[in-house]
Every structure is written in structure tokens, then in C-alpha cells.
């Protein structure tokens, strides 16, 4: 990565009121938070990576049992959720743009829209979980699987289903908390064209969580639907 | 404030520094000063070190008698607690969270780490993790060993696995945040002129450590989470009853935990580089090779985990690949040892306490590293796996290496951190006791291991008694050795002579500022114009 | 106790080498010890020499040296070459250790918290005791009932994890009669240290005597046949013509066509899986969900007996699998177990 040594002398300008004491200037501060966020996202990739690895191994071991579970996944709800999340990513980007244009109203509007999409996602996910419980598809607590030959191995997929979507949902909830924080800050006129790094960073996080879902949806819902 | 401190240093008025700038609990518990957080960490990990050490002494006592003295349940909980506490709550944070936290910003000419509040958060996460683990211990303990192997941990153990796993999980995030902070700090916070090739080797090694922390620890986190879910649901992906594979747990676990041994040793290597240069009054021999060997270790550490599974039925070819890679990772470590030794060549060597620890480190780490070759080599791994040979090997690296380096580093930088000197004679005496006690404890274990005594046995066949008694005797000496520095270090805080800004005549930005440093380290950002370890032009000792 | 402690002659510092693999592994071990010792001495000597010769003296300044690329390359490449020798040597021995000879006698081991259950092809069963004839290659097929164990005989320099869910195997050729420790070396719970036993290596005659004492319950195959009837397997698995389930005669170690197009070998692992989890692999031409899961119904020992029975239905089975190097007593065909003298060590039922 590029060298980023600090310019020797620098006069703080009026825009740099958000500059924290230990940074030389706001360029350095933004650089640092950007690198920090990307590094954090790398750790997130590895966190989910453990589960994707387990998924890959067991899917290769029990391809038929895994494919059979697609019967029990609600593609309509999953597909809707995919669309909802993609929309939320769009509104998130628009929120960042509004911040860059110093449009406080636009920023708040798009942040609220993003939160609404995020909430819709979680509600739909909640319905899906309820269905899974009703259909006895919760390993360890309530499991009974109709194709008896897959009774054992299909539990692995459902276990992974709950772990992966559950961890994803936890990240969504954290994301909603962060968005709330942004809205409060925006209300206080903290952000403007010179200072919008937090909006951008939380935006990165939000997109990351969306991308995880983009992988989860086909892997969990669609594998049995090949022709 | 900082300028004030400079002028007042000459007068009777106590200069303002990071320790006396504010007082009270709040000024510590809500601080974002990397130096104060480092001190908080230093206190916490020292406490945990003695908790883990007490467990070790207790189970060494149990092993005085072949049939054991305590109940097996007690013994199993003791060694598990020792492992979990020492690995996750002492070794992993030991140097990064204390010495590196304190000195990386200063060494690169920054006022603080890039994310001071994240730094404080990392300490709180550590404390919460430690609290959960201690809760598990107080409720009756955990008996899975620090490795948490399934299906024992997920299904069969009747101990507080969940609380302990959650404690480790939380401490893991503390470690991730420390690593992340270092990476960003080293990339973005260097002072003008502080190019990569001018970085002190301590910074290099902690940067490499940060990479491992960031890339490895999340995998441990998810693995422990999957284990916890499996324990709650009584079914899961490591459960052989539904087609799961317990070995997958080991793969995921060691994908973190093998690199983690380099999290534990790399920062120690950095400390040794600093000490060898300072007390030989020479630039470290082959600076580039030492710096890049840290990076090589960080990279290679991620491709050797399979050597923990040579005997689990992994394919022969997998075993062979991991064997050669494990030999390969030994090369950069060897490079370091040779370069440290060569650093003394034509130097001006003095025998201050940090240097004694550095000698101890090089000697013991050499033995620890070389015995690692026995375990990388497939056939001799078969003969020694799961025995005391392994125990001896990793204690030579972790205790003989890392703890020696930690103590060396603390003695080296103590005058800078506290402004006081410790008593010279006592500190040398303690270093000697620790070296002797260590060898007496762990050398017999190599012999025990090849004889076949399995690790984690609370009782053993009587013919192994003699060597076990020797080892326990050594452990008592070692325990006493570790208590001595605590006493004189605490003593020095009040009664130690004032250290001055540069008692060792060392180079490096940290020795150019006041002892103890002020809150923002530098009055104004320094401009670096020379390479690290420029001892040719450095002034002599003026302590 | 003190008197004994001081009696250093008691001290054993190197384990006995009692198997054919022990010697070669020891050779490699000593090679590594010597290399390590040389390196350690060199480094210690260099430290002591430099520290003394270049100790700080007034008026003598350190000479600043940048480093030396040729030196760096030398001390990177030379040690690595030595390590390559260790690698190649170790890998070669490991390779050999994975390939049991064809004439190996097969013994079955089941690990269970906290005991080792041993089953011989002739029907003998023991706990925490393993008897083997000197000079005879022995292949252990190992299963675990619960957690991961590790089967280790230090005197033989062998060790292998026993992982629940599948078979593991290890083999050795004992060379020295005597009694040796048998350990579990993977932590397995409270009485992990109690999961130890003895391996007795006997000369062939003594072994024959010992072996002929057992078999009160018939050979392994006979025990398996009893279970086969008891569980009602015979109603579907007809021996000679096609029933609802595949014919088991002449099945062992033959390729099997599966309904998904794959072909697998009907070895121990396949048979075990097909008993415990019949739907995992369906033979071409048969329906799934006909046979119930036997997981939880039968123990690993039962599975070994059933597999023993299925093997006995395949007369073509390579001699090795039946241990035909053994005198006929051991290999006695079903129904004719020789009962000469009572067994020295009645085993089961601890």
C-alpha cells in the first residue's frame, strides 16, 4: 500500500473542526478511517468465510441432501429480501451522495429509507424463521425431515442456514443501530461536503452486509432448482 | 502543557507526564491515551499470568506422585484453565497490547494510535472476556483443554464450556482491534521521513503480528461460535452422528491457532532485535532480512496448520505438503537467530538485564525452534505427537521465548514507561533464576515425551516419576523467579532512582523524549532523517 | 519414595524399540537430535564468544556493519537443505507407515470413554490388553464410540487418532517379546489417564496357546452371524438371490455400482456406513428408505462383528484380511473353534 507520511506543517482550516487531536490533517484522518474500515471488512470476510468453508465442504460431501432442502426454502420471500437489500444499498449510496452535496434533508431521507428497507428485510426473515419452526426444520430443537434418507445430513444444511442467516441478521441489526446514529448526527448538522467520512464508512459496512446476502441467497435457496 | 514540561525538567517542579497529568479512576478508565491503555493492559495481563501460573504450579504438584494427588476432574480443569488463560489472556496480548501499544506510536513519531477509542474498547473487551473465563473457572471450571476439541467439548464435557468459549471469543475481538489499530497506525501515522526501511524492527514485527491477528482471529471467532451453537442445539456441523466431521473443527481451529503461535512469538522477536542492537551498540545485522523474515513468518504461518493433524487420518499427500511448508517456516526464524548473533560481532556488548533476557531468549528459542523440526518431520511427529515432547517444545518457544522477551522488553523500557530504574542486582538475579528454573522444568519433559508419556495425564506409570519430580522442582524455582520482578518493579515505582531520558544510550524516537513521556509524546511532530539503530553517531550512555 | 528418587539407576531415558518401525524412526530421531545439538552448540558458542570478545571496554567503539547478503543466503539455504533431508526421510517413513503389508493380521480396536476394546478375528475379546505374535505384521482397524481418542504404543513408535464417525488404521510388526504400555494420547475426558493398557508381544507358540483359549462366543464371523439373525437382516439380505436388499455374498472388497452413477469399493468403511446410515449410498437398482438406520442401535463392536460376518461370506477375500498367516486355530472356519486350554486373560466385562 502507498506510503502516507504526514506533511510537515499544516494550518488547520475552519473545515477541520472534526479533526481529532492526534492527526496532522483531515486527509490523514480520512485515509486512516478508510484503511481501518477496509481492514475491518477483511476480518468480516474471514468471519463469514469459516461458515462458507464449512458449507462448501459439506455440500461437496452430501450434494443430494443439500439439494433436497431447496424444496423447503421460500424462494419468493428470499427473492423479495434480495431485492429489498439491493434497494437499500442504492438508498445508502444516495445518502452518501447527499452528504457529499451537503444536502442534510436528502441525507436524512435516504438514511431513513435505508433503515426502512433494512427493517423490511428483518421482518420477512422473521416470517421465514417462524415458518421453519412450524415445518420442523430447526436442528436440535424441532427437526423432522420428510425425505427420510436425508434426515441426518439435511440437518447440517439447516444448521448452517440458521448460523449464516442468523449472523447476517445480527449484522443487519448492528447496521440499523449505526444508521440511527448517523441520522442523529445528521440532524445535528455534523456532516457536510468537507466531512462525511462516517457516512461513507457505515455505507461500506452496509454494502458488505448486503453482499454477504447476495452469496447466501443462491447457496441456501436455489441449489436444488437447477434443471 | 508539553512545552512546560520541557523547561521544568531542570527545576525542582515535577514535570508533567502522562502519569501525573490527571488523577483518579475516571482518568484511567476513560482514557484514550495509548500509554495509559498499555499500562491498564500491563496490569491485567500480569494478573492473568499469575492466575495461569498458579494453576500450573498446582498441577505440577499433582504430578509429583504417579497416581496423582488431586481428583482427575480437578487436574483436568487446572490444565485447561492454565492453557486458556496463558494463551488467550497472556501470550496473545502480552507484548502487542502493552509494549507495542505504548511504543509503536512513539517509535514512528505519532501522537497516538490511529483509533484511540478503539484501543480503549479493545481493553474493555479483554476485561469482559477475562471476566467470562474467570466466571467459568469459579463456577467449577472447564475441562476441554485450550483446544476445545469436538465432540468432547460440544457433547461430552460437563463443564462450563460455553462461558469459557464466550470469554475467548470476546478476547479474540480485543485482539483483532489491537491488530487493526497497529496496521492502520503503521501505514498512516508515520512521521515525515519515517520510511518503511527506517522503521524499528519492533514495529515491523508488530505490524506482521497485526496482519495475523486480523486475518486469523475472525476464523477462531466463528469456530467457537459454531461450537457454542452445537453445544446449545446438541447437534451441529461437527457432530459425526449427522455426518459432520470433528476434524473440520480442528482445521478451522488451527487455521487460527497455528498462526496464533506467531502472534505470540513475533512481537518477542521484535523486542530482541531492539535489545541486541542497543546493548551491542550496533545496527542490527541484516536489517532487511530481519524485517522481511517477520513478514515471511506472517505469510507462511497461514499454510502450516495441517501439521497438527498428521495423525487424524488426513491424506498422506496433505501431510507431506504441510510437512515441507512447516520446515519452510523454520527458515525465517533461523535467519533471525543468526542475525541477532551476528549483531554482537565487533560490537560493544554490555550485560545489562534486558541483554541477559535476550541471551536467554536466543538460547531457549533456538532449542524450541529446533525441536519443532522433530514435529514437522512426519515420522518423528508420529513418535512424539500428543506427548510431553510437544509440551516441552512449545513451552521452550512460548515461555523460554516469549516470556523471556516480554520480561526483557519490560526491563528495557521500564525506565521510559515509569521514569524509574529498578535495582540492577536483583533484576540480574531474577533473570538467572528464571533461566535455570525454566530449563529444569521443561528439559526433562523432552525426555519424558520420547519415552511416551502422554500430555494431559493426571496419573502416569511409575517409571516416569523421577523426571516429573525434576520438572515440578523446576516449576517451583521458576514460580519464585517470576515473583521477584513483581516485587522490585513495584518497589522501583516509588523508590527507584530517576532514570533520565535515555539510560541505555539507545537510538530511536522513544529515547529522545521525556521519561515518562507526555500525553501527546511529542511537542511537535518529529522529522526523521536517519535510519534505525544509527549507533555509529549516537551519543554514549548518560544515564 | 525419596530413596527411590535418589536411585538414579532407576531412571529410564530412552524407550525400548520393539517394532520393525521403531528402529528407522529412532535413526531419524537421532539424526535430528545430532543436527539440533550441533546447531545449539554453535549458536551458544557464538553468543558466548562474541559476548566475551566484544564486551564493552572503554575507548573501544562498535564497528557498524550493515549485513552481508552472501552470509544471509548461506544461513538460509544450508539449514534448509538439512531440513529437506529431515523432510524426505520423515515423509518416506510416514508413507511406509500408511501402507500395511498384504499379509497383515487384522485386529479391531474400539475406543470408548475410557477403555480400549480389542476384538480378534477368531472371536477373542479383551479390554485394555492387546496380544500379538512376534514378527507378524498387525493391522489395527480402529473406531470410536464417543469422542476422539488416540491409540499409541510408544515402544512401537506408532500412534494414530481414533475419530468417531469413521475407521482409522495403523499397523506395526512387533519384534521383541515383552509387555509394553498402550496409551490414549488425545485428551478424552475425566479418566483420560486411565485409558491405558498393555500390549503383550509373545512368540508364535505362546501366542497360539493364548489365542486358542478364547472363542467361547465363536469367531468374529460367528458373532456377526448371530447379530445378523438377531437384527433380522437376513429377511431382506437374502444370501443367494435378489431380495429387497443387495446380496452380501462375495461383496467384500468388490466394486459396487451406486444409484447416482458412482462406483465405490465395498471396504470396511463402506460397510460400516451402510449399516449405520443405509441411505448414504444406495446400490443401483435398489430403493432408498428400505433399511432402517442402525445408528444408535448397534455399537461399534457390533458393527465390527457384522463386517466380520460379511467378510466371511467372501471366500475370495485376500488372505490378509482374514489373517491366514495364522495357524488354523485362529482362522478356524465357522463352527469349529478349537478349545484347547482356558484363556490366560479373560477379557470382557470390566
Topology of this structure?
The complex is a heterotrimer of chains A (about 230), B (about 550) and C (about 350).
Chain A: H1 26-61, H2 63-68, H3 75-100, H4 104-134, E1 137-138, E2 142-143, H5 153-187, H6 197-222
Antiparallel strand pairs in A: 1-2
Chain B: H1 2-8, H2 25-29, H3 34-62, H4 72-107, H5 116-138, H6 152-156, H7 161-188, H8 201-233, H9 246-280, H10 287-300, H11 316-343, H12 353-376, H13 378-384, H14 388-418, H15 424-451, H16 465-495
Chain C: H1 2-6, H2 22-53, H3 69-97, E1 105-112, E2 115-119, E3 125-127, E4 129-133, E5 138-144, E6 149-153, E7 158-162, E8 168-172, E9 178-184, E10 197-202, H4 204-212, H5 220-230, E11 255-257, E12 263-265, H6 268-276, H7 300-312, H8 319-322, H9 328-331
Parallel strand pairs in C: 1-5, 4-10
Antiparallel strand pairs in C: 1-2, 2-3, 5-8, 6-7, 6-9, 9-10, 11-12
Give an overview in words.
The complex is a heterotrimer of chains A (about 230), B (about 550) and C (about 350). Chain A has about 230 residues and is an all-alpha fold. Chain A contains 6 helices and 2 strands. Chain A has a two-stranded antiparallel sheet with strand order 1-2. In chain A, helix 1 runs parallel beside helix 6, helix 3 runs antiparallel to helix 6 and helix 4 (about 105-135) runs antiparallel to helix 5 (about 155-185). The termini of chain A are far apart. Residues about 1-10 of chain A have low confidence and may be disordered. Chain B has about 550 residues and is mainly α. Chain B has a single domain, classed as Cytochrome c oxidase-like, subunit I domain (Cytochrome C Oxidase, Chain A), CATH 1.20.210. The longest helix of chain B is centred in the N-terminal third of the chain and has 36 residues, at about 70-105. Chain B starts with a helix and ends in a 48-residue tail after the last helix. The relative contact order of chain B is 0.11. Chain C is an alpha+beta fold. Chain C has helices at about 1-5, 20-55, 70-95, 205-210, 220-230, 270-275, 300-310, 320, 330, and strands at about 105-110, 115-120, 125, 130-135, 140-145, 150-155, 160, 170, 180-185, 195-200, 255, 265. In chain C, the strands form 3 sheets. A 5-stranded mixed beta sheet of chain C has the order 3-2-1-5-8. Chain C starts with a helix and ends in a 19-residue tail after the last helix. Helices cover about 35% and strands about 20% of the residues of chain C. Chains A and C meet through loops of A and loops of C.
Amino acid at each position: 500500500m502507498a506510503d502516507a507520511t504526514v506533511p510537515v506543517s499544516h494550518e488547520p482550516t475552519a473545515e477541520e473542526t472534526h479533526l481529532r487531536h492526534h492527526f496532522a490533517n483531515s486527509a490523514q484522518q480520512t485515509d486512516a478511517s478508510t484503511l481501518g474500515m477496509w481492514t475491518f471488512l477483511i476480518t468480516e470476510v474471514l468471519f463469514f468465510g469459516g461458515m462458507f468453508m464449512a458449507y462448501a465442504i459439506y455440500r461437496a460431501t452430501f450434494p443430494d441432501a443439500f439439494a433436497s432442502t431447496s424444496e423447503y426454502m421460500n424462494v419468493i420471500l428470499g427473492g423479495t429480501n434480495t431485492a429489498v437489500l439491493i434497494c437499500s444499498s442504492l438508498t445508502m449510496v444516495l445518502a452518501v451522495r447527499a452528504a457529499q452535496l451537503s444536502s442534510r434533508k436528502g441525507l436524512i431521507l435516504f438514511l431513513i429509507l435505508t433503515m426502512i428497507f433494512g427493517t423490511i428485510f428483518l421482518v420477512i426473515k422473521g416470517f421465514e424463521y417462524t415458518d421453519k419452526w412450524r415445518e420442523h426444520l430447526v436442528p436440535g430443537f424441532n427437526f423432522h425431515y420428510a425425505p427420510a434418507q436425508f434426515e441426518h445430513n439435511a440437518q447440517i444444511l439447516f444448521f448452517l442456514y440458521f448460523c449464516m442467516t442468523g449472523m447476517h441478521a445480527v449484522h443487519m441489526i448492528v447496521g440499523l443501530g449505526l444508521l440511527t446514529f448517523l441520522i442523529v448526527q445528521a440532524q445535528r448538522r455534523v456532516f457536510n461536503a468537507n466531512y462525511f467520512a462516517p457516512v461513507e464508512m457505515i455505507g461500506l459496512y452496509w454494502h458488505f452486509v448486503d453482499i454477504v446476502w447476495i452469496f447466501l441467497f443462491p447457496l441456501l435457496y436455489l441449489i436444488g432448482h437447477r434443471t | 502543557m508539553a512545552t512546560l514540561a520541557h523547561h521544568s525538567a531542570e527545576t525542582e517542579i515535577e514535570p508533567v507526564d502522562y502519569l501525573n497529568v490527571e488523577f483518579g479512576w475516571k482518568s484511567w478508565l476513560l482514557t484514550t491515551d495509548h500509554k495509559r491503555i498499555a499500562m491498564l493492559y500491563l496490569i491485567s495481563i500480569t494478573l492473568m499470568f499469575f492466575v495461569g501460573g498458579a494453576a500450573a504450579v498446582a498441577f505440577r504438584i499433582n504430578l509429583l506422585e504417579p497416581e496423582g494427588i488431586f481428583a482427575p476432574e480437578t487436574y483436568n480443569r487446572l490444565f485447561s484453565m492454565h492453557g486458556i488463560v496463558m494463551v488467550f489472556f497472556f501470550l496473545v496480548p502480552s507484548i502487542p497490547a502493552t509494549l507495542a501499544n505504548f511504543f509503536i506510536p512513539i517509535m514512528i513519531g505519532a501522537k497516538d494510535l490511529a483509533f484511540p477509542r478503539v484501543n480503549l474498547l479493545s481493553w474493555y473487551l479483554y476485561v469482559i472476556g477475562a471476566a467470562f473465563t474467570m466466571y467459568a473457572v469459579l463456577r467449577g471450571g472447564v475441562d476441554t483443554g485450550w483446544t476445545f476439541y469436538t465432540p468432547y467439548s460440544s457433547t461430552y464435557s460437563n463443564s462450563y464450556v460455553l462461558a469459557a468459549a464466550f470469554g475467548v471469543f470476546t478476547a479474540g475481538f480485543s485482539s483483532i482491534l489491537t491488530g487493526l489499530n497497529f496496521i492502520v497506525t503503521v501505514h498512516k501515522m508515520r512521521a515525515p521521513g519515517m520510511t518503511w526501511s527506517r522503521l524499528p524492527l519492533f514495529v515491523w514485527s508488530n505490524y506482521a503480528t497485526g496482519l495475523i491477528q486480523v486475518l486469523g482471529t475472525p476464523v477462531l471467532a466463528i469456530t467457537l461460535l459454531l461450537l457454542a451453537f452445537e453445544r446449545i442445539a446438541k447437534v451441529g456441523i461437527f457432530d459425526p452422528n449427522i455426518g459432520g466431521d470433528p476434524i473440520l473443527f480442528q482445521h478451522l481451529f488451527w487455521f487460527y491457532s497455528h498462526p496464533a503461535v506467531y502472534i505470540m512469538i513475533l512481537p518477542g522477536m521484535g523486542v530482541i532485535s531492539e535489545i541486541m542492537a542497543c546493548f551491542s551498540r550496533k545496527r542490527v545485522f541484516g536489517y532487511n532480512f530481519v524485517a522481511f523474515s517477520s513478514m515471511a513468518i506472517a505469510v507462511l504461518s497461514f499454510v502450516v496448520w495441517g501439521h497438527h493433524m498428521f495423525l487424524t487420518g488426513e491424506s498422506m499427500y496433505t501431510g507431506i505438503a504441510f510437512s515441507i511448508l512447516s520446515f519452510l517456516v523454520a527458515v525465517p526464524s533461523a535467519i533471525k537467530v543468526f542475525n541477532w548473533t551476528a549483531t554482537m560481532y565487533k560490537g560493544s556488548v554490555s550485560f545489562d538485564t534486558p541483554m541477559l533476557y535476550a541471551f536467554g531468549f536466543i538460547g531457549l528459542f533456538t532449542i524450541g525452534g529446533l525441536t519443532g523440526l522433530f514435529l514437522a518431520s512426519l515420522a518423528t511427529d508420529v513418535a512424539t505427537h500428543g506427548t510431553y515432547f510437544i509440551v516441552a517444545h512449545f513451552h521452550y518457544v512460548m515461555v523460554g521465548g516469549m516470556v523471556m522477551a516480554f520480561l526483557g522488553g519490560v526491563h528495557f523500557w521500564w525506565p521510559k514507561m515509569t521514569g524509574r530504574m529498578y535495582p540492577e542486582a536483583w533484576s540480574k538475579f531474577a533473570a538467572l533464576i528464571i533461566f535455570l528454573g525454566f530449563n529444569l522444568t521443561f528439559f526433562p519433559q523432552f525426555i519424558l515425551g520420547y519415552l511416551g508419556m502422554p500430555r494431559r495425564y493426571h496419573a502416569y506409570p511409575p517409571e516416569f516419576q523421577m523426571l516429573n519430580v525434576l520438572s515440578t522442582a523446576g516449576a517451583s524455582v521458576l514460580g519464585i523467579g517470576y515473583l521477584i520482578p513483581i516485587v522490585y518493579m513495584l518497589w522501583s515505582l516509588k523508590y527507584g532512582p530517576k532514570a533520565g531520558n535515555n539510560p541505555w544510550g539507545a537510538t530511536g524516537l522513544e529515547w529522545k523524549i521525556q521519561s515518562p513521556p507526555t500525553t501527546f509524546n511529542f511537542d511537535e511532530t518529529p522529522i526523521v532523517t536517519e535510519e534505525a539503530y544509527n549507533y555509529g553517531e549516537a551519543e554514549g550512555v548518560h544515564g | 519414595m525419596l530413596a527411590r528418587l535418589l536411585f538414579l539407576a532407576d531412571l529410564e531415558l530412552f524407550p525400548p524399540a520393539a517394532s520393525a518401525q521403531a528402529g528407522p524412526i529412532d535413526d531419524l530421531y537421532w539424526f535430528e537430535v545430532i543436527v539440533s545439538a550441533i546447531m545449539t552448540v554453535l549458536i551458544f558458542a557464538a553468543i558466548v564468544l562474541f559476548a566475551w570478545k566484544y564486551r564493552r571496554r572503554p575507548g573501544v567503539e562498535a564497528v557498524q556493519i550493515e549485513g552481508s547478503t552472501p552470509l544471509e543466503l548461506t544461513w538460509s539455504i544450508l539449514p534448509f537443505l538439512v531440513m529437506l533431508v529431515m523432510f524426505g526421510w520423515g515423509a518416506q517413513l510416514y508413507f511406509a507407515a500408511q501402507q500395511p503389508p498384504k499379509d497383515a493380521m487384522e485386529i479391531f480396536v474400539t475406543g470408548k470413554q475410557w477403555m480400549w476394546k480389542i476384538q480378534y478375528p477368531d472371536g477373542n475379546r479383551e479390554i485394555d490388553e492387546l496380544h500379538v505374535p512376534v514378527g507378524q505384521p498387525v493391522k489395527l482397524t480402529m473406531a470410536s464410540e464417543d469422542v476422539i481418542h488416540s491409540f499409541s504404543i510408544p515402544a512401537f513408535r506408532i500412534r494414530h487418532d481414533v475419530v468417531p464417525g469413521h475407521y482409522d488404521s495403523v499397523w506395526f510388526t512387533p519384534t521383541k517379546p515383552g509387555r509394553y504400555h498402550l496409551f490414549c494420547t488425545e485428551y478424552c475426558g475425566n479418566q483420560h489417564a486411565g485409558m491405558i493398557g498393555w500390549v503383550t508381544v509373545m512368540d508364535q507358540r505362546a501366542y497360539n496357546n493364548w489365542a486358542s483359549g478364547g472363542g467361547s462366543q465363536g469367531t468374529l464371523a460367528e458373532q456377526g452371524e448371530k447379530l445378523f439373525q438377531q437384527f433380522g437382516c437376513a429377511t431382506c439380505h437374502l444370501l443367494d438371490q435378489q431380495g429387497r436388499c443387495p446380496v452380501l455374498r462375495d461383496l467384500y472388497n468388490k466394486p459396487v455400482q451406486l444409484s447416482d452413477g458412482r462406483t465405490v469399493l465395498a471396504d470396511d468403511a463402506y460397510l460400516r456406513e451402510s449399516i449405520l446410515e443405509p441411505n448414504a449410498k444406495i446400490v443401483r437398482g435398489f430403493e432408498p428408505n428400505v433399511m432402517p438406520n442402525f445408528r444408535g442401535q448397534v455399537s461399534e463392536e457390533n458393527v465390527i462383528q457384522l463386517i466380520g460376518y460379511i467378510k466371511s461370506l467372501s471366500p475370495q477375500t485376500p488372505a490378509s484380511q482374514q489373517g491366514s498367516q495364522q495357524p488354523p486355530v485362529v482362522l478356524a472356519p465357522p463352527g469349529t473353534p478349537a478349545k484347547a486350554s482356558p484363556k490366560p486373560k479373560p477379557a470382557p466385562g470390566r
